């Protein structure tokens, strides 16, 4: 069983920052460093959308246009953790944010169906 647990969500004013964390664990989760990791979000009334992804080694990243220049994805393979640093937050960033894992290397895993494992989500609310 693979478990992904997100943390770091909350309420913040527009222009503020938050850092989300996602820690992976589980008996069948062999090696964190062999998984591509991604962040997705679902705003109220909308479908889940891609936010950012990072390759298994951390050498490649990819972002949705809506967050480029404001969000940064990173990972610490020694801690089995992926992060999403969110700066200059806007009310339209309000959503439930999900961490996801995909076995193998990829620098372009932007589709939710490419990921096999998901966290339970953490709420981010940005007030105007």
Counted by DSSP, the helix tally is: 0
Instruction: State mean pLDDT (0 to 100 scale).
Output: 94
User: What composes the largest sheet?
Assistant: 7 strands, mixed
Low-confidence stretches: none
Order of helices and strands: EEEEEEEEEEE
How big is the Rg? Answer: 14 Å
Number of strands: 11
Bulk shape: globular
State the helical fraction: under 10%
Question: Structural class, judged by helices and strands?
Answer: mainly beta
Which strand-content bin applies to the residues?
over 45%
Q: N- to C-terminal separation?
A: 40 Å
How are the elements arranged and paired?
Elements: E1 3-7, E2 10-13, E3 18-25, E4 35-42, E5 49-54, E6 61-63, E7 71-76, E8 81-86, E9 95-103, E10 117-118, E11 122-127
Parallel strand pairs: 2-11
Antiparallel strand pairs: 1-3, 3-8, 4-5, 4-9, 5-6, 7-8, 9-10, 9-11
Task: Give a written overview of the molecule.
The chain is mainly β and 128 residues long. It has no helices and 11 strands. The strands form 2 sheets. Strands 2, 4, 5, 6, 9, 10 and 11 form a 7-stranded mixed β-sheet that branches. A 4-stranded antiparallel β-sheet has the order 1-3-8-7, with no helix packed on it. Strand 7 and strand 8 form a beta hairpin. The chain is globular, with a radius of gyration of 14 Å. It starts with a strand and ends with a strand. The mean pLDDT is 94.
């Amino acid at each position: 069983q693979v478990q992904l647990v997100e943390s770091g969500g909350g309420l913040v004013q527009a222009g503020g920052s938050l850092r989300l964390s996602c820690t992976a664990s589980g008996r069948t989760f062999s090696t964190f460093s062999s998984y591509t990791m991604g962040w997705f979000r679902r705003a109220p009334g909308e479908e889940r959308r891609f936010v950012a992804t990072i390759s298994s080694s951390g050498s490649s990243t990819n972002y949705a246009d809506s967050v480029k220049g404001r969000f940064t994805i990173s990972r610490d393979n020694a801690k089995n953790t992926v992060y999403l640093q969110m700066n200059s937050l806007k009310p339209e960033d309000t959503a439930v944010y999900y961490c996801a894992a995909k076995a193998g290397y990829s620098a372009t895993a932007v589709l939710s169906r490419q990921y096999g494992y998901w966290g339970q989500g953490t709420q981010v609310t940005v007030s105007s």
